[in-house]
Recover the amino acids of this structure.
């Protein structure tokens, strides 16, 4: 328990100096606030930008942040010192995961102020659950990558799939079909309706399969590579 | 405290350590002396449970290194190149992470930074430190947790003489507090100055071991008398009857400018045993 908290605390101290993670977390909320408040275009549905950016945010930020933090600690050999200090891998991953989840939720909280107050709890619930899948995927990427460079490039491919497919799907039927297979699409649909009734059975299955896949891949990557 | 019995380790195609055995009593400084590539780092990794090995056994704190528990680990301090620091965090915050893990009181952090002479850099990010300061920060991390056994992999390599001296002082101070210290170096002067026992490692084999001066004494046949002549020539003579006659003759001729004796050092012993210099890459 203590070690999880130590890792979490260390990461919090690093927040304001870790530009790559900070940028990830600030980018979408700031873009959302700007688009929703300043660039109101006629004829666009309510909360259009919030919903679009939220789907991208949930697919991208937790994944890239998680992957880049783990990969950096591997590359700079700080992870090895933690392991030699008897911090267990699961404690480390939980600490970092909690941190990423927390800063993600702060960003989500910022984005939610554009919504009807009644919808905010539902919105945060969906975002919070979605982020967990992304965090597991990010942990896979971080464990697999040899260094930050390779983790970032691997992460970018997955992130493009997760974040941009739902957005492209809004404009193109082919992409829309492909997008059905990623959980971020269903997160987007849930946010569209602001109710769990939007989640059809096939959607629920796809989200569950995505989550299961992320966790399974994570376990395989972890078994194969550990944290070394 | 640290016992090694016939440790052998191969990487896929190549034997890196063969039949390494020694026994380091409590409270001693043990120096593993050898050129780059001899297998020093590999042995430290094995002794600290970071690497598996093929044959033999190793004990530390009366425990098999293959089965070190969490609480055993907390009594072992390790410093090696392959250990990093959090570059964006300050020196203080770097130590704070480990103070928290090891439940060390906060006051120890500044105390330890003072010990290694980094108190003025406590708030500076680790990325702004010079190489010597970085090594001292890593030493601080080890010393802060008050371990019983300390492993230092080339703690002074690449540092200026001033910093080397500071580090030697700290290491000797830790010995006074009862720590057992295992260090590697390719600097024989350092080994002779710090270590109670040294082992000379070459290509994965210990070629000799013992107290530094005892090893040198064993190689006394290397002892030479050097005569510097007025003509500018140097004459090297072994310790022998013939030499004595030659010297007295030269003295009578008043052709001698200076006489000194050259004694074997760990460096020359190593050269004789292996045909290799310790610091061939520098
Ligand atoms: N992971 C590895 N795979 C293969 N060979 C290695 C590995 N690590 C070290 N070696 C080899 O083992 C030998 C000893 O290395 P090392 O223990 O680092 O020497 P030292 O620390 O004395 O300089 C070297 O020849 C090195 O090339
Ligand atoms: Mg080495």
């Amino acid at each position: 328990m203590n070690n999880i908290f130590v890792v979490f605390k260390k990461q919090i101290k690093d927040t304001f100096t870790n530009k790559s993670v900070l940028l990830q977390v600030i980018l979408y909320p700031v873009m959302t606030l700007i688009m929703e408040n300043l660039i109101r275009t006629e004829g666009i549905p309510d909360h259009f930008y919030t919903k679009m950016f939220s789907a991208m945010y949930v697919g991208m930020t937790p994944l890239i942040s998680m992957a880049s933090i783990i990969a950096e600690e591997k590359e700079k050999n700080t992870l090895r010192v933690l392991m030699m200090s008897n911090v267990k891998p699961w404690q480390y991953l939980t600490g970092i995961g909690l941190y990423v989840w927390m800063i993600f939720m702060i960003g989500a909280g910022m984005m939610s102020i554009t919504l009807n107050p009644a919808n905010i709890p539902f919105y945060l619930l969906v975002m919070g659950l979605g982020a967990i899948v992304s965090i597991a995927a990010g942990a896979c990427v971080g464990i697999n990558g040899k260094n930050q460079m390779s983790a970032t490039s691997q992460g970018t491919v997955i992130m493009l799939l997760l974040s941009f497919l739902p957005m492209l799907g809004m404009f193109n039927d082919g992409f829309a079909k492909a997008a059905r297979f990623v959980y971020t699409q269903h997160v987007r649909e849930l946010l569209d309706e602001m109710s769990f009734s939007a989640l059809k059975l096939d959607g629920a299955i796809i989200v569950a399969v995505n989550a299961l896949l992320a966790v399974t891949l994570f376990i395989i990557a972890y078994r194969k590579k550990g944290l070394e | 405290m640290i016992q090694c019995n016939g440790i052998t380790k191969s990487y896929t195609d190549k034997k890196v350590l063969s039949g390494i055995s020694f026994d380091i009593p409590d409270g001693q400084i043990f120096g593993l002396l050898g050129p780059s590539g001899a297998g020093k780092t590999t042995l430290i990794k094995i002794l600290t449970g970071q690497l598996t090995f093929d044959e033999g056994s190793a004990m530390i704190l009366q425990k098999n290194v293959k089965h070190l528990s969490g609480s055993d680990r907390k009594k072992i301090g390790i410093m090696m190149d392959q250990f990093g620091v959090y570059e964006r965090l300050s020196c203080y915050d770097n130590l704070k992470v480990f103070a928290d893990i090891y439940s060390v009181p906060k006051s120890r952090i500044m105390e330890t930074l003072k010990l290694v002479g980094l108190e003025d850099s406590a708030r500076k990010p680790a990325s702004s430190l010079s190489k010597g300061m970085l090594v001292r920060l890593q030493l601080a991390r080890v010393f802060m947790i008050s371990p019983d056994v300390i492993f230092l992999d080339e703690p002074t390599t690449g540092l200026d003489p001033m910093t080397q001296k500071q580090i030697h002082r700290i290491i000797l101070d830790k010995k006074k507090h009862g720590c057992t210290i295992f260090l590697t170096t390719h600097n024989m002067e350092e080994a002779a100055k710090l270590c109670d026992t040294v082992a000379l490692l070459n290509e994965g084999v210990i070629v000799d071991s013992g107290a530094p001066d005892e090893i040198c004494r064993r190689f006394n046949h290397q002892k030479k008398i050097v005569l510097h002549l007025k003509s500018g020539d140097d004459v090297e003579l072994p310790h022998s009857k013939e030499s004595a006659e030659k010297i007295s003759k030269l003295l009578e001729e008043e052709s001698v400018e200076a006489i000194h004796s050259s004694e074997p050092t760990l460096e020359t012993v190593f050269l004789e045993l292996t045909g290799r210099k310790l610091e061939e890459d520098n």
The interface with chain A takes residues 48, 50, 70, 73-74, 78, 82-89, 93, 97-98, 100-103, 125, 141 of chain B (CB under 8 Å).
